[in-house]
Specification:
Elements (H helix, E strand, L loop, with lengths): L17 E7 L10 H18 L3 E6 L3 E6 L7 H16 L17 H4 L8 E5 L2 H17 L14 H6 L13 H4 L5 H20 L4 H10 L5
Antiparallel strand pairs: 1-3, 1-4, 2-3
Helix pairs in contact: 1-2, 4-7
């Protein structure tokens, strides 16, 4: 399924909304199809979170696109964050350019295209209600299952699902940051998610059956999803 980018894309910042962001790899190619690539992306996302001081409420990394649910950063804005995130991941994950004989340059006409990692634009949807927060989180967490990559959301370790369901710490700190209005207090994101998301996830998990504790523990120790 593709993600159409509207030609007259308008972004709304400064309203203290969450931002549901979708960004695709160039031409929807699976540049994030390896565990190493997805791990590197999450490492850079955490470094960017710390530098620009925003809260990661949820995420999923798919082979050819990502979804993020973020607060607005204290430094810059979501566009700044995405520009840095895209540039740094492209620098790290793109194959290093090999020196070629200038006379052979015309034989590699696709080289310039392969140097592009991300689509130029990203989709940004403002989220300001609890209903939409839960909807976007569930959509992200179900993505790997809908695509047939795993049987259950907890098997895909490149998402925030295991944090919410199992309180498992991962490479990206979820619901942690300097935006206190978003992560604490009676009206904060954390309290809403605790009240709505976690029971919903547990109910869904009980309804469809779960992996055994031993399988989950083995998956965690090996550092990759079981199966």
């Amino acid at each position: 399924m593709g993600f159409a980018m509207p030609s007259g894309l308008h972004r709304t910042y400064g309203a203290h909304h969450l931002h549901f962001i979708t960004c695709s790899c160039y031409r929807r190619l699976p540049f994030l199809d390896t565990a190493r690539g997805r791990d590197r992306f999450l490492s850079i996302l955490e470094q960017t979170r710390q530098r620009y001081r925003f809260v990661v409420v949820g995420f999923v990394v798919m082979p050819e696109h990502i979804h993020l649910l973020l607060t607005e950063p204290e430094v810059g804005n979501p566009s700044t964050v995405m520009q840095v995130l895209k540039q740094r991941t492209a620098h790290v994950l793109l194959p290093k350019r090999r020196r070629r004989n200038p006379l052979q340059r015309n034989f590699f006409g696709d080289e310039a295209q392969r140097r592009v990692f991300w689509q130029a634009r990203f989709y940004d949807f403002n989220v300001w209600t609890t209903k939409k927060r839960v909807e976007k989180l569930r959509y992200m967490h179900r993505n790997p299952v809908e695509r047939g990559l795993v049987e259950t959301p907890e098997q895909w370790r490149w998402s925030s699902y295991r944090f919410y369901l199992l309180e498992e710490a991962g490479p990206v700190k979820v619901n942690e940051g300097l935006g206190k209005d978003f992560v604490s207090g009676s009206g904060g994101v954390a309290s809403h998610l605790s009240a709505f998301v976690v029971p919903a996830l547990r109910k869904e998990r009980e309804g469809r059956g779960t992996l055994s504790v031993s399988v989950l523990a083995k998956s965690k120790s090996l550092g990759h999803p079981p199966g």
